[in-house]
């Protein structure tokens, strides 16, 4: 039996009253433990959706439920990982990762030992006392993901987390993220512009196809788990990829 992790019911939202709304009577729901990706052209409203989920913005109308509960104050209840790692350059890796625990009032020493216990799993053993500038892009994103996990939230919003990485590091990070998700079972919402990335990672893919949006177009990924990158060569996946690209191209004005 599926349990909803996040639901939007009849949500409307515009940045300014006189402007075209981004969402109008918008419905959306994802289940606990799902991995879903959201794709859409630039400016379609992906980050706005995340701002509404985190509570940085509030809907003009409608209700947002987290784990079946109506929540108007959602700040701090979902984990958010931005495109840029936003690690504090003057804090060491352990100090950066421990930040959400310290904010919650966990004693510094206890917070640090909680981080240290996870460093190996996150491929960060040996760099705990380094500063972010000494780490590769992939390592910095793993610190950022560790910090997001330590927020303790069961719903994680990842906003194009791998877009700044080189192609090979990006593929390695995708495999690593899937392994982490399969172990931890959080619910993940992942924004990407990369159709292959969405197909490899997700149970379902949602596309913003209109503005204002009332419903995202939804596609189920025809792949079982565990997955390997070569699964993307399967005919059903290639067919879906072609279709997704057509849907996205139909929305792009050049
Ligand atoms: N703070 C704001 N005030 C006014 N308008 C905004 C604000 N933030 C975003 N917008 C507008 O809302 C629309 C949706 O923006 P949003 O950032 O959600 O798009 P996106 O799909 O995340 O784009 P990208 O892929 O480029 O990050 C755009 O037209 C954008 O210009």
TrEMBL record:
Keywords: ATP-binding, Nucleotide-binding, Transport. The keyword Transport applies. InterPro entries: AAA+_ATPase, ABC_transporter-like_ATP-bd, ABC_transporter-like_CS, ABC_transporter_ATP-bind, P-loop_NTPase. SMART domains: AAA. The keyword Phosphoprotein does not apply. It holds the Pfam family ABC_tran. GO terms for molecular function: ATP binding; ATP hydrolysis activity. This is ABC transporter ATP-binding protein. It comes from Metabacillus sediminilitoris.
